[in-house]
Design a protein that fits this description.
Elements lengths: L1 H24 L18 H12 L14 H14 L1 H6 L1 E5 L2 E6 L9 E6 L9 H4 L13 E3 L7 H16 L8 E6 L10 H10 L4 E12 L10 E8 L1 E10 L3 E2 L8 H14 L8 H10 L5 H7 L2 H13 L2 H7 L2 E8 L6 E2 L2 E10 L5 H12 L4 E10 L10 H14 L3 E7 L5 H4 L3 E12 L1 H4 L8 E3 H20 L1
Parallel strand pairs: 3-5, 3-6, 6-15, 7-14
Antiparallel strand pairs: 1-2, 2-5, 4-16, 6-7, 8-12, 8-13, 9-11, 10-12
The structure holds zinc ion (ZN).
Zinc ion (ZN) binds next to loops.
Amino acid sequence: MKDKIYKYSIAALVFLISFILLRAIFHQPNIEQIRTYNSIILDEVKSIENLSKSIEFKTISHPDYTKFDYKEFQRFLDWLEDEYFLIFEELESKYLGKSLLLKWEGVNNNLNPILLTGHYDVVPVGLNANQTWKENPFHGKVDDEYIWGRGALDDKSGVIAILEAISYLLKNNFSPERTIYFSFGHDEEIGGERGAAKITEYFINENIRLEWTLDEGSFLLENIIPGINKPVAMINVAEKGGLTLKVIGKSLGGHSSMPASKSSVGYLANALVKLEENPMPGKLDGVSLELFNEVSRHMTFKNKVLFANLWLFEPLINSYLSKSPSMNAVLRTTTALTMLSASDRANVLSNEAIGIVNFRLHPRDNVGDVIDHVTKFIDSENIEIHQVGNAKLASNISSWTDKGYLAISDSVKEIYHDVIVVPGLMVGGSDSKHYAKVAKNSYRFNPFLISSNEISGIHGTNERIKKVDFLNGIKTYIRIIENGSDQ
Ligand SMILES: [Zn+2]
């Protein structure tokens, strides 16, 4: 009898292992037919020169609108009209504040228009830029490999690449099936209230519904996902929201010579440690499930065994991915302890100690979920919790099987060939939060290949883009316009 049980157990185990391995063997990338077109021949020198020139304008946005140097913004716009005169001749143009809206009328009025957008305002460069930057951030230096300066990635490269793409198509007598709008915002970095928000208002007043929009977002990234050595183009289909809580520890204040057994700082510290050690629950579902299901097909066999058998290994995978800050942010609402304050004297005990905690909301969580979670873990009568300012929920999730997504993804695959295209989740904000009000689907993606070396330039020092990557981005926008206008 014992012998029989033993035999059956061995047989079951062999069956289970074969099942797991078979699933991994069949966990392969889909074979796709990539459309190929006539090759695109750009005036490369001119395109690079134009990005370089655009960087020279100090179009820095400021949280206080009275502190904008509007002359510089106007100089930039005048230059655009001059340099891209063909576009201004052929397309309708309209200014809302210092933001520009262009309309390329399509031949088929039954189709809803689409929108391609970017922003030409930039963030400041820091106080000691002449010491911390290798090149002057506003000279637009071009060397053998790179174009340097503030905006080279965020987002003058996007704006100029779109304009170069329109110019190219006009010169090649292209005319779109559906109407295409292009907008270039002047205040994205401070929320877009006078740019993208006003353009959205205009769409609402004119009763214009957009089929889909493409705004800045993720890039084609190399070496970002552990175990993947191909570039991954993450087309963001949603953006996370935000919530800030003030956590207050309370105790008797007084002189530090006779402290009570526990101080407001002690209560607060305890509470904050609990929050950091107990993040909001995270899991692979929706966008993140689609992302890893696709990406893992390109991983080593060992990883395929794990990802093809989520039913068994999901807890293991979740804990592995949670260790990477960028992957963790895709899985869950993140918790960041950002500010602290208490007494401002060494010998005074404060009766209140305050900590600020910033949460980035995953589409599956709302404000109540986070507050419930926080209250459950802190659970102390010496702690008060208050919401700071307005919370912003995550955006809706746009379709990754609809025509807009496919137009973008086909274009990326055609230009870059050996890449993985997946839907992603944007962890920062963009002007899309405004345009989403009038769009069926909103996508956030810059079609430029960048590495982890370059990514730190965004809002940081030594912002730069490789010339070859900028040119490939123009080509991708050309295909996005062609594919998007007739699909
Ligand atoms: Zn940006």
